[in-house]
Amino acid sequence: MKAKVSCAEGPWGCSTCVIIDPATQRVTHLAVMAKGAPYIERLVPIEMVVEATPGSIRLCCTRNELTGMELFVEATCVEVNPYAYHLLLGQHLDDECLLYPRYVQFQHKRVPTGAVALCQSARAKVVNKIVGRVDRFVVDSVDGHITHLVLRKGPPWRRKNVTVPVAQIESIGENTVHLKLDRISVEAIRHKEIPSHCKKC
Question: Which one of 17, 26, 36, 160 has the fewest beta carbons within 10 angstroms of its own beta carbon?
Answer without folding.
Answer: 36
